[in-house]
Amino acid sequence: MKTKKLNELSLDELKAKEKNSQIIVIVLGSFMVLTCCILLYVSITSKKPALAAISVACFGSLLPSLAVLKQIKDEIKSRDSK
After folding, report:
1. What is the DSSP letter of 58?
2. What's the pLDDT score for residue 2?
3. Backbone angles phi, psi at 3, to 5 degrees
4. CA distances in angstroms from 5 to 14, 26, 28, listed in the order given
5. Above 70 in pLDDT, residue 1?
6. Which run of H or of E encompasses 15?
7. How far apart are CA 39 and CA 52, in angstroms?
8. Do 50 and 43 touch, CB atoms closer than 8 A?
9. Is the entire prediction scored with pTM above 0.85?
10. Cβ 64 vs Cβ 25: under 8 Å
């Protein structure tokens, strides 16, 4: 199945996609916070500071999801202003 561009979707489809994207970002963000806390604890107890750096760097993988969510919100806002 081919995915449509944002400007080809209807407003209802955009709102549904925004809701799904928000849920994904919340779940991934929560999981990353939990994982970060665990890695920080393990890095402190095992005295391996490299684990702390890895735990902080993992948040970079959440950025593409946030960018897509922002694009969806911008598209909805541009249609509402018309």
Report:
1. G
2. 64
3. -85, 145
4. 10, 23, 24
5. no
6. helix 11-46
7. 6
8. yes
9. no
10. no
